[in-house]
C-alpha cells in the first residue's frame, strides 16, 4: 500500500462517514495528506484528516478520528489504526503490505523517471496567480527565484510563466515575488550550480548563502549542494559497480531503510508544497534529506567480501537507483546539474 493508496482509503472512509450521517460535512476534501508520523506518533503513516474535518463537522477532532478509525480497521493492508495527540490517525501496515509499498514506490519512480512527483493539483489556479513579472533591473536572485517558481508550478499542472516586467498593467499578476537581494556578486564568486544553490536554498526572506562553504567540495564542510550531488553520483557509482558484478536492481523483498523509503515517498508532497508556497528552498531541504538517507544506506547495497549477490542486494540496488532518480529530478527543477561522477 503506497501513500497514495492509503490517502484514497482514508478519503473513502470520510465519504462513507458522510454518507451514513456520522459526519455532517458539506464539502468533502478532494485529497487527504498522508505523511510519516511526527514526534509522538506511531506506526508507518499518519494523517491530520480528522483535525481538518473537525471544524466543518462541528465535532472535537478526536471524535472525528474515532469515526474514521471505525471505518478503516478492516481496510486491506492496514494492521492497526491508532489515534494520537489532538486527533492524528496513525496507521501500521501489515508486514506484507510494507514490502508491497516499497515495491510499488520503486516501480513508480522507475516508470515516471525525473517526473516522479509531478502532478496536476495546481492546474486550476487562476492565470493571474501564476504569471510573474521580472522587473527591469531585477537582481540575479529575483530572476532566478522567479524562473524556478515557474518550473515548480508547471510541475504541478499550473499554467505558470514569467512575463516581461514592462508588460501592460492588466497582464501583471496580483502578487510579485520578493527576495532579499544578494550581499555579494554571486555569479562572479561561484560556479553556476553553486550560485543557483546559494540563491535558492535559503528562504526568499533570508539572505543568500555565503560563498566560502559552497567552494568546499567535501561532505563535512557545510556544502549541502555537494552532499546532494555526491549522493546522486554515489547512486550511479553503485549501478556501475553492480553491473561489474552482473547485478541488476529489482525490488523483490522488503528493504530495511525506513528513512530513505519515507523520504522518497514524501517527494510528491514536498514538490507540491514547494510549488504551492512558491518556495524552492522547501525542495532543496527535501533533497538534502533524501541525500542524507541515501548516503547512510549506500554501504549496505552491494555484496561485501565473499558474499554472493541475492534478492536482498537486488532490492537495495533498486532502491538506491530510485533515490538517485529523485535527486536528479529535484535538482533539475532547481536548475542544478546532477553529475554521475564527482
From TrEMBL:
Q: Which UniProt keywords apply?
A: ATP-binding, Ligase, Nucleotide-binding
Its GO CC terms are: cytoplasm
Cited SMART domains? Arg_tRNA_synt_N (SM01016), DALR_1 (SM00836)
**Top-level lineage group:** Bacteria
Q: Where is the Arginyl tRNA synthetase N-terminal domain?
A: 4-93
Task: Kindly list the GO molecular function terms attached to this UniProt entry.
Answer: arginine-tRNA ligase activity; ATP binding
EC nos: 6.1.1.19
BP terms from Gene Ontology: arginyl-tRNA aminoacylation
Which Gene3D superfamilies does the UniProt record give?
Arginyl tRNA synthetase N-terminal domain (3.30.1360.70), Isoleucyl-tRNA Synthetase, Domain 1 (1.10.730.10)
Domain DALR anticodon binding, first and last residues per copy: 228-342
What reaction is this protein's catalytic activity? tRNA(Arg) + L-arginine + ATP = L-arginyl-tRNA(Arg) + AMP + diphosphate
According to UniProt, the name of this protein is arginine--tRNA ligase
Species this protein is from:
Streptomyces somaliensis (strain ATCC 33201 / DSM 40738 / JCM 12659 / KCTC 9044 / NCTC 11332 / NRRL B-12077 / IP 733)
Please name the taxonomic classification of the source.
Bacteria, Bacillati, Actinomycetota, Actinomycetes, Kitasatosporales
Amino acid at each position: 500500500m503506497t501513500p497514495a493508496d492509503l490517502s484514497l482509503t482514508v478519503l473513502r472512509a470520510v465519504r462513507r462517514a458522510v454518507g451514513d450521517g456520522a459526519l455532517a460535512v458539506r464539502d468533502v476534501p478532494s485529497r487527504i495528506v498522508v505523511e510519516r508520523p511526527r514526534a509522538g506518533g506511531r506506526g508507518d503513516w499518519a494523517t491530520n484528516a480528522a483535525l481538518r474535518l473537525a471544524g466543518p463537522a462541528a465535532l472535537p477532532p478526536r471524535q472525528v478520528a474515532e469515526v474514521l478509525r471505525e471505518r478503516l480497521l478492516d481496510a486491506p493492508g492496514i494492521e492497526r489504526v491508532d489515534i494520537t495527540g489532538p486527533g492524528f490517525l496513525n496507521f501500521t501496515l501489515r508486514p506484507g503490505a510494507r514490502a508491497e509499498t516499497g515495491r510499488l514506490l520503486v516501480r513508480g519512480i522507475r516508470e515516471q523517471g525525473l517526473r516522479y512527483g509531478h502532478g496536476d493539483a495546481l492546474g486550476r489556479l487562476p492565470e493571474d496567480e501564476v504569471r510573474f513579472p521580472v522587473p527591469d533591473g531585477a537582481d540575479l536572485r529575483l530572476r532566478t527565484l522567479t524562473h524556478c517558481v515557474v518550473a515548480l508550478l508547471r510541475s504541478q499542472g499550473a499554467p505558470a510563466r514569467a512575463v516581461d516586467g514592462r508588460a501592460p498593467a492588466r497582464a501583471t499578476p496580483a502578487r510579485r515575488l520578493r527576495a532579499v537581494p544578494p550581499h555579494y556578486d554571486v555569479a562572479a564568486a561561484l560556479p553556476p550550480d553553486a550560485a543557483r544553490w546559494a540563491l535558492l536554498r535559503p528562504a526568499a526572506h533570508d539572505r543568500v548563502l555565503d560563498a566560502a562553504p559552497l567552494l568546499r567540495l567535501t561532505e563535512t564542510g557545510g556544502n549541502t549542494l555537494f552532499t546532494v550531488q555526491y549522493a546522486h553520483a554515489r547512486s550511479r557509482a553503485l549501478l556501475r559497480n553492480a553491473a561489474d558484478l552482473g547485478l541488476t536492481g529489482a525490488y523483490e523483498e522488503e528493504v530495511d531503510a525506513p528513512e530513505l523509503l519515507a523520504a522518497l515517498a514524501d517527494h510528491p508532497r514536498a514538490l507540491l508544497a514547494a510549488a504551492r508556497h512558491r518556495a524552492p528552498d522547501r525542495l532543496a531541504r527535501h533533497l538534502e534529506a533524501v541525500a542524507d538517507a541515501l548516503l547512510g544506506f549506500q554501504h549496505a547495497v552491494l555484496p561485501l567480501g565473499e558474499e554472493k549477490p541475492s534478492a536482498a542486494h537486488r532490492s537495495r540496488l533498486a532502491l538506491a537507483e530510485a533515490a538517485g532518480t529523485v535527486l536528479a529530478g529535484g535538482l533539475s527543477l532547481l536548475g542544478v546539474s546532477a553529475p554521475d561522477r564527482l
